[in-house]
Specification:
By secondary structure, the chain is mainly β. Helix content is 13%, strand content 40%. The chain has three domains: 75 residues, no CATH class; 169 residues, Sandwich (Lipoxygenase-1), CATH 2.60.60; 154 residues, Sandwich (Lipoxygenase-1), CATH 2.60.60. The radius of gyration is 28 Å and the shape is elongated.
Length: 413
């Protein structure tokens, strides 16, 4: 006798429901056992996927990597109580920071960025490291484009912020499209930072700079297609920090902190002089900056946890009736107090006969403290087209440059 198809479906549903109830019972027993010891399961285990009607094999690594999503699953919470903040007497403490532009603003193209750093933990949560071992997860971009109508937010979340001290740093990102449309920053063209803990807003913060120019005046020798690229205004202050301190009971305080020592390094070629037959060609120089940990900030690595860069030190002098351009490379270090950095300028690309090298300019909080370093010409006794120096800033942001003594070279016979 044939069994009706609806009876088969009903039987399968009952079997899945029985399996799910049995799993929940096992989870409850596992959770009770794990809660007493509050240790994470070191083995792999099954996780139900009701939407798919099946299971997946996972481990507590998945919870560490993405606690916001994974710890919502009962099996994950039962097997990983330590990671999922599910031990007895654990206090829920979810920190969330939203960086977003005002919905009432509609001018130009702008981008800001957010970083989160936990005290006494070397791993920074930012665009190039969006998940950390201490439970930070960062998604999105704080971006606005009036032409396309695109408006996005950047969101950082810390799953278990209790008993931790955090620094949220906001920085203005420089874009060529930003310059081509509008170089004037108003109070609405910089993103706002909204800080919440367990869904409750603790504060809203904004840049203090109003009606500032993000870039210096347009060089007369720059073509309309390359306006101001890399020529950042050293007096523009696009960075600030917010300190968030939470105790074990998730009682949190927030405080705005201004950056006290912004170091800026700009590498640029001088402007063109009168054209002559031997001044056509292309040249490019490269500035590399290393911190105490030998981490590099350069044209090829322009976004780091401690430095971000913009532009390219390059000059091009064309034949008549074509175009010329002159760009700069700028590296920005928002927090340089009590730190030391090594700088290297290399001559990178050359074509033609335009031979003037790029010049290095250094600023501390917008005030110049060094101007005029040039690399050694390739035709010098040492050759190589290189200039090296160390920059040291104290706690009061008094910065000084110390050139590295190059070896004495003799002319070759």
């Amino acid at each position: 006798m044939a069994i009706p198809s609806n009876s088969l479906c009903h039987t399968r549903t009952n079997r899945f429901n029985m399996k799910l109830k049995l799993s929940i019972l096992v989870i409850s027993m596992t959770y009770a056992s794990a809660a007493l010891s509050c240790v994470d399961n070191t083995e792999r285990f099954e996780v139900n996927r009701p939407a798919r009607g099946d299971t997946a094999i996972k481990s507590c690594w998945h919870a560490i990597n993405n606690p916001w999503d994974q710890c919502s699953k009962p099996e994950m919470k039962a097997n990983c109580p330590l990671t999922c903040n599910a031990c007895p007497n654990d206090v829920t403490c979810r920190l969330k920071a939203d960086l977003q532009f005002s919905p009432n603003y509609s001018e130009g193209v702008h981008k800001d960025s957010l970083q989160v750093e936990k005290a006494e933990d070397g791993e920074v949560c930012y665009s190039e490291n969006q998940k950390t071992d201490w439970g930070c997860n960062l998604v999105g971009d704080a971006f606005f484009n009036n032409t396309s109508g695109v408006r996005k937010a950047e969101i950082a979340r810390v799953f278990n912020a209790g008993g931790g001290n955090y620094t949220l740093r906001v920085s203005h990102d420089f874009l060529e499209t930003d310059v081509l449309q509008s170089t004037t920053v108003t109070k609405n063209s910089l993103a706002n930072l909204i800080v919440k803990v367990n869904g409750k807003r603790l504060g809203k913060f904004k840049h203090k700079g109003k009606y500032q120019e993000t870039h210096e005046g347009v060089p007369l020798d720059v073509s309309p297609d390359n306006l101001n690229v890399g020529f950042i205004n050293p007096e523009f202050n696009g960075d600030y920090s917010v300190k968030v301190n939470c105790n074990d009971e998730c009682e949190c305080t927030v405080e705005r902190v201004e950056q006290t020592c912004k170091l800026q390094a700009q590498l640029a070629f001088p402007g063109f002089t009168e054209k002559s037959d031997n001044e056509y060609g292309y040249h490019s120089d490269v500035l590399t900056i290393k911190n105490d940990y030998s981490e590099i900030c350069s044209y090829w690595n322009n976004v780091t946890s401690w430095c971000y860069a913009y532009g390219d030190a390059v000059i091009y002098r064309s034949e008549p009736d074509y175009y010329d351009y002159n760009q700069a490379f700028t590296a920005l270090i928002p927090d340089a107090a009590d730190k030391e950095f090594s700088l290297t300028v290399d001559h990178y690309g050359v074509a033609g006969y335009y031979s003037t090298p790029a010049v290095l300019n250094l600023f501390a909080n917008g005030i110049p403290f060094f101007n005029g370093a040039k690399h050694a010409p390739d035709a010098s006794p040492c050759g190589g087209g290189k200039y090296e120096a160390d920059v040291v800033c104290d706690g009061s942001c008094n910065c000084e440059l110390f050139p590295v003594i190059m070896p004495i070279c003799q002319e070759k016979n």
